[in-house]
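Page 37, continued from 36.
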C-alpha cells in the first residue's frame, strides 16, 4: 500500500498545517479520530452535527496516509463504516454524501440504499485522468442511476473537462451535470456558495 507522502517529515508538516487551520477556524466544530478498516480517520463535525467533514485516508491530511491497493472494495467498506458512525450520532434528517475529485470516486462506492443523496464534485470515477483513479466498474456506478444525485463540474476543469464529463455522466448515470461557469477544478474554493446550494437541494429532495 502506497503512502500519500514522500517521507515522515513531509507527512508531519501537512498534519501540522491542517491542525493549525482547524485551530484558527471560528465556526463551532468538534474533531474525532475514528478507528476504521483503513486506519485512523479524522472527522470534523460542524455546529450541532449538521455537517461532517472527513479526511480521506490515503490523501494528504490528518487521517491514515496509506492508500489501499484494491481501492474500490476497500473504500466501499470504509465508507460504510463512516456512514454507520454518522448515523449513530444523528437522531434524524437526511444523510447526503458530497465528494470532490478522488473523494467523489470514493463516494460512488456508497450503498445507495444507505444514504439519501450523492453530490459528485469534479468527480473522478466516471472517467480517468492523470493522478486519479480510473473509471469505476459499471457494477458500482450503475447502482446510482435514477437516484437522488448531482454531478457538478467547472466549465474550465483541466482534469475533468466539462464536455467529457457530460458524456460520461449521461451514459453512465443518466444525468446531465451541472456546469459552473467560470470555475475550474477546485469547486469548493471557487464556488462554495453554489456548491452549498446544490447539496442543500439534495438534502431537501432526499
Amino acid at each position: 500500500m502506497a503512502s500519500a507522502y514522500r517521507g515522515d517529515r513531509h507527512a508531519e508538516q501537512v498534519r501540522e498545517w491542517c491542525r493549525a487551520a482547524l485551530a484558527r477556524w471560528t465556526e463551532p466544530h468538534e474533531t474525532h479520530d475514528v478507528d476504521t478498516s483503513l486506519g485512523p480517520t479524522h472527522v470534523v463535525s460542524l455546529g450541532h452535527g449538521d455537517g461532517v467533514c472527513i479526511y480521506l485516508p490515503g490523501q494528504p491530511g490528518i487521517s491514515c496516509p496509506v492508500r489501499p491497493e484494491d481501492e474500490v472494495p476497500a473504500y466501499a467498506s470504509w465508507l460504510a463504516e463512516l456512514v454507520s458512525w454518522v448515523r449513530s450520532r444523528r437522531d434524524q434528517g437526511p444523510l447526503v454524501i458530497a465528494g470532490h475529485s478522488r473523494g467523489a470516486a470514493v463516494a460512488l462506492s456508497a450503498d445507495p440504499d444507505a444514504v439519501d443523496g450523492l453530490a459528485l464534485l469534479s468527480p473522478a470515477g466516471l472517467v480517468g485522468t492523470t493522478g486519479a483513479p480510473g473509471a469505476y466498474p459499471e457494477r458500482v456506478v450503475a447502482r446510482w442511476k435514477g437516484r437522488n444525485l448531482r454531478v457538478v463540474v467547472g466549465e474550465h476543469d483541466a482534469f475533468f473537462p466539462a464536455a467529457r464529463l457530460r458524456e460520461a455522466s449521461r451514459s453512465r448515470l443518466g444525468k446531465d451535470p451541472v456546469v459552473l461557469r467560470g470555475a475550474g477544478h477546485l469547486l469548493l474554493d471557487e464556488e462554495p456558495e453554489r456548491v452549498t446550494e446544490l447539496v442543500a437541494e439534495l438534502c431537501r429532495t432526499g
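The mean pLDDT is 92. Flag for discussion at group meeting. The helical segments are 8-24, 71-88, 102-108, 138-141, 162-173, 187-190, 192-205.
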